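Moderator note: this is an archived Q&A kept for reference. The question asked for a predicted structure of one protein chain; the sequence and the answer are reproduced below.
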Amino acid sequence: METYVKMNAEFTMPVANGPLIEFKNVYKSYGNNKVLDGISFQVKKGENLVILGRSGSGKSVTVKCLVGLTKIDEGDIYIDGKAITNLNEEELNKVRKKIGFLFQNGALYDSMTVRQNLAFTLQHHNKKLSEEEINKAITEALYNVGLEEAIDKMPSELSGGMRKRIGLARALIIKPEIMIYDEPTGGLDTITAKEIIELICSIKQKFNTTSIIITHDLLCAKYTSDRIIVLKDGKVNIEGIYQLIEHSKDAWVKSFFEK
């Protein structure tokens, strides 16, 4: 693995010491297809880690393992120092309450208004909230993504960028410690993609979230990342800040940056 560990203050923001997320020698296969081949990495508290890789490199499986949707074959995964590998479903659900997930397509319920989508998620996580508390949380979440006026719209009335923002509001409404972004700029035009990138950066600043961002978008990787890992054949091929990876001499890594 080619590794760059030097952090340059010109390119990256300081983060708190200590990992919030850690993968240690994690393996995952589907039949004869080895998707994760001893992957190890850490994400520090308050850090944005971008995971780059071509299709089939293990990016999505890594995230599924983190939230317990996929069982690993070997290795360990830690969140806040606690091993989650062998937790039962009830214990996993407690861990999941710390995690907000922005899906690639927003994943809104089409039969519900924006208000109902957010309320459903909030009530699922906390059934003891009053109607006043729910309404306040919804208003705050929509304010944070700049879409207060969309509160009573149906998903079908929203543009792709608006759906992403509402999906982000729904993730933020549970006040997660960890955010996972799955192709946050995928399918968006350039201007809207830049707005989502700015939003990801502002959320980190405002809420001090720890984030994993899966993306093919190099602009997104450049501006949202504190650090990047690039996966190849289920392994971490290279690790470091964007500017150092961009100038890697490795031919395979360089191919990511070819026009």
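Archived answer notes: Residues 2-16 have pLDDT under 50 and may be disordered.
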